Amino acid sequence: MNKKTTYKVSENDNLQNSRCDNVFNFTEIILIIEKAKAKIYKAVNKGLIDMYWEVGEYISRKVTQDRWGESTIQEFSRFIQAHYPDLKGFSPSNLWRMRQFYEIYHDKPILAPLVRELTWSNNLLIMANLIFILKP
Fold first, then answer.
1. CB within 8 A of 73, min separation 6: which ones?
2. Is-contact 55 97, C-beta < 8 A?
């Protein structure tokens, strides 16, 4: 005798299944958001590093051609901070680091694009260690 068993699905079961589906779907959206955030962070970081490279190149050229020194860099720093009061990272010491960043890597075609993919903090650590290693 083939007896067919039927199960009654309660409204509560449907609601729980619906919630599980929603959690799964919502989690997928979270992954999409996180992936986009990572891409945005990487793009912003690349833009900052490219800007630091260009500022470093500019300062390097001015130091060589126009004999920029500490007082000019301090004035340059104040000028930038006056025009962009909310912009951080343009202290005189950081401007010198931008120059150093450019000068260390500009003639190294293999390394230059690679270090431009790193964060500024990581580049500062690398440069500090390079200076320490290269000191006589």
1. 59, 92, 95, 96
2. no
Determine the 3-state secondary structure of 70 from DSSP: helix
The rounded distance, in Å, linking the Cα atoms of 39 and 47 is: 12
Averaged in consecutive runs of 10 residues, what is the pLDDT profile of the chain (136 residues)? 56 63 81 96 95 98 96 98 96 97 94 92 91 65
Stated as kind and residue range, the H or E segment containing 43 is helix 11-66
> What is the b/e burial string over 63-88, where b = at least 16 CB atoms within 10 angstroms of the residue's CB?
beeeebeeeebeebbeebeeeeeeee
The type of residue at 21 is D
pTM score of the predicted model: 0.77
Are 98 and 59 in contact, with CB atoms under 8 Å apart?
yes
What tokens does 109 get? 């075609």
Can you give the pLDDT at residue 70? 97
Instruction: Give the separation between CA 129 and CA 13, rounded to whole angstroms.
Output: 61
Rounded-to-integer distance, Cα 13 and Cα 43, Å = 45
Residue 29 and residue 94: Cα distance in Å, rounded? 39
